[in-house]
Specification:
Elements (H helix, E strand, L loop, with lengths): L5 H22 L9 H16 L11 H32 L2 H12 L5 H17 L1 H8 L12 H48 L4 E2 L2 E2 L5 H26 L6 H5 L8 H11 L3 E3 L3 E3 L8 H34 L1
Antiparallel strand pairs: 1-2, 3-4
Helix pairs in contact: 1-4, 1-11, 2-3, 2-7, 3-4, 3-7, 5-6, 5-7, 5-11, 6-7, 7-8, 7-10, 7-11, 8-10, 8-11
């Protein structure tokens, strides 16, 4: 067996870090807000947006200075996230043995994805619906930005299922994808981009500010970084279900987003249910109404997809090493 070179040591540490991060997520969940890097990213984005995004009353149909300011603010935050993650990774590689490197990278990577919290929140919507429609709406409001006050029980359930499918990509598959390609800095950059899109990537007014131009860069950056992972999420869901969701490309095109329609359309087809956002889209429009069993099935498919992702990611990171040893 060849001696372990630095590249091999790093690959082994990344694989171990991935599984450690998944174990922490499963058993411990999210770190406290004071220690959470995504919370820090959100504070930066909120601080910049609340000062630089134009007030709704001052919105312009074409605002190139606002676009430039939003792009510059995004780049500053993205570079900071990338630089901090690069420093952590470099110091761990330089000063720690492989097991220490794995521990540090695993602990640092965990806050950059959130599968257990997503699954638990979606299942909590179903539990709240058993109590009352109002309780279900209130619980759903923790997951989505849309107005939930007029949603029916069916629409609340559909929204919860959609949220799990869409955020399976945003909160798990995409961070792991960029972790595999570029290590901790890649995951940190993606997490910043996705958080910026969630906070700035709106058309029109929100919170008294107009985000159409100021948030355009953030929205497009997230679209680019999520493009491949969103389609990989479809493959993972298909593997989890044991069949391909035929017609998923057609369903994905029904949504305004170039990415979110792929996992949502796949979930709708695999469950055989209709998923819709009133006035915006309807996926698998001929499908039946979702039931509480479909919410549980959604969480089950997501869980299988998560573990499938971990296996595929590990093999991808180890593939150069396995090829050398073959």
């Amino acid at each position: 067996m060849p001696a372990l070179d630095p590249f091999t040591v790093f690959a082994l540490a990344l694989v171990a870090a991935l599984w450690l991060a998944l174990a922490i997520d499963r058993w411990l969940g999210e770190p406290p807000a004071a220690l959470h890097p995504v919370v820090w990213m959100g504070r930066y984005l909120d601080w910049m947006g609340s000062r630089l995004a134009p007030r709704a009353a001052d919105a312009k149909p074409r605002d190139l200075p606002g676009f430039a300011m939003g792009a510059l603010s995004w780049c500053v935050g993205a570079m900071a996230a990338f630089a901090v993650a690069s420093a952590v990774q470099s110091l761990a590689m330089q000063w720690l043995p492989v097991w220490g490197m794995a521990v540090v990278l695993g602990l640092a990577f965990k806050p950059l994805f959130a599968w257990r919290m997503l699954r638990d929140e979606v299942l909590a919507v179903e539990t709240a619906l058993d109590e009352s429609l109002e309780a279900g709406r209130a619980r759903l409001a923790r997951l989505v930005s849309r107005d939930v006050s007029v949603l029916s029980e069916r629409e609340v359930r559909e929204s919860a299922i959609e949220s799990l499918a869409e955020n399976l990509n945003d909160s798990l598959v995409a961070p792991v994808f960029w972790f595999v390609l570029f290590g901790l800095p890649g995951a940190a950059l993606y997490r910043f981009a996705n958080t910026a899109d969630a906070m700035w990537g709106y058309r029109g007014e929100r919170g008294g500010r107009d985000w159409t131009w100021f948030g355009k860069w953030a929205a497009r950056a997230d679209d680019v970084l999520s493009w491949l992972p969103a389609r990989l999420t479809v493959l993972l869901l298909a593997l989890a279900a044991g069949r391909w969701p035929r017609g998923v490309a057609r369903e994905a095109r029904r949504t305004p987003s170039p990415n979110s329609g792929w996992p949502m359309g796949a979930m709708a087809l695999l469950l055989g249910v209709r998923l819709a956002k009133p006035g915006v889209y309807a996926l698998n429009g001929e499908g039946r109404a979702a039931t509480s069993a479909d919410t549980a099935r959604t969480a089950q498919l997501g869980e299988r997809a998560a573990w499938g992702l971990a296996v595929i990611a590990s093999l991808a990171m180890l593939s150069p090493l396995l090829a050398r040893w073959a």
